[in-house]
Amino acid sequence: MPRTVKAVIFDWAGTTIDYGCFAPVKGFIDGFESIGIHITNQIARKPMGLSKIDHMRAIADMLSEQICEKQILKAYEVFENTLFSNIENHCDIKDYVIETVATLRNQGIKIGSTTGYTSVMMQKVIFKVAEQGYSPDFWISSDRAKRGRPYPYMIWNNLMHFDILNPREAVKVGDTVADILEGKNANCWTVGIIMGSSELGLSREEVASLSTEELDKRKATVRKTYYTAGADYIIEDMNELPNVISDIESVIQN
Q1: Whole-number Å distance between alpha carbons of 136 and 125
Q2: Does some domain include residue 1?
Q3: pLDDT tens, 163-189?
Q4: How far is CA 58 from CA 50, 133, 139, in A?
Q5: Where are the alpha helices (DSSP H) in the chain?
Q6: Do the bridges between strand 170-174 and strand 189-193 make them parallel or antiparallel, or are there none, so unpaired?
Q7: Are residues 156 and 76 in the same domain?
Q8: Rounded CA gap, 122 and 194, in Å?
Q9: How far apart are CA 170 and CA 152, in angstroms?
């Protein structure tokens, strides 16, 4: 029987690389500090998944201070400088990604990707990650589409590249609300990942330091956030994805 899922479209930071999605956070904090505004780690993460300039504007909209576009652009310039100085230190491939991608490819499934990073940012990422054995069949950055997330245009570019007519033959996997909304707006199946996600927002060391009860509580919060956003499935780690794909295919075929 032919595959009914033809492509899986992954996010990058927090989903396939950069456990905890830490590369952008310091940049946002530094950016706002440069215009005299302190933001918390939690606020810096809230709009994660958007294009980075839209992310900066979304943070500004959350604050009580009146911030003009000129200040946002100044903060964004500092954000970029910080990000470019540390992005290569946050290209670690997350658990089970290599094995899961190999399994999917063995099943004839194409591997696509979308990101809130710009194409210049991604040039550093693509090289470092490829060295570790992960290279999707297609990637597109937010600045190469008419709009970034939550608009579906980056996903549509993936579908065009893979010559897929029906978006229900594709699955979007991500670690933020923006990822889930991107997938829903493209009419793809959507999967949220918990461990190492920006929504969980914890390093490996922080995860290890938590009690089982506290970690379960935090995971439950992330799970609720994804379901509220409309996720079709939620996985704790990437090794659960092949079973999700099998379940989706059984639903489609029945």
Answers
A1: 12
A2: no
A3: 999 999 999 999 999 999 999 999 999
A4: 9, 34, 25
A5: 23-33, 41-45, 52-62, 69-86, 97-106, 119-131, 153-161, 177-185, 204-209, 212-229, 241-253
A6: parallel
A7: no
A8: 23
A9: 13
**Side chain identity at residue 130, one-letter code:** A
Is the same domain home to 158 and 245? Answer: yes
Q: Are residues 80 and 103 in the same domain?
A: no
Asked, for residue 2, whether it belongs to a domain, the answer is: no
Here the CATH number for the domain that contains residue 234 is 3.40.50.1000
Do 81 and 146 fall within a single domain?
Answer: no
User: What pairing do the DSSP bridges indicate for beta strands 170-174 and 140-141?
Assistant: unpaired
Range of the domain at 11: 7-21+90-253
User: For residues 112 and 128, what is the distance between their CA atoms, to the nearest angstrom?
Assistant: 18
Question: Are 35 and 69 within one domain?
Answer: yes
Q: Which residues are catalytic?
A: 11, 52
Domain presence at residue 142: yes
139: left (phi over 0), alpha (psi -120 to 50) or beta: beta
Q: How far, in Å, CA of 142 to CA of 116, rounded? A: 5
31 and 17 in a common domain: no
Q: How far apart are CA 241 and CA 168, in angstroms?
A: 16
Quickly list DSSP for 228-239: HHT-SEEESSGG
Q: Which two tokens stand for residue 130?
A: 């490829």
Residues 84, 96, single domain; the answer is: no
pLDDT digits (tens, 9 = 90+) for 192-232: 999 999 999 999 999 999 999 999 999 999 999 999 999 99
Q: Looking at this protein, which amino acid is placed at residue 212?
A: T
Q: Report the distance separating Cα 2 and Cα 11, nearest Å.
A: 26
| Angstrom distance (rounded) from CA 246 to CA 242 | 6
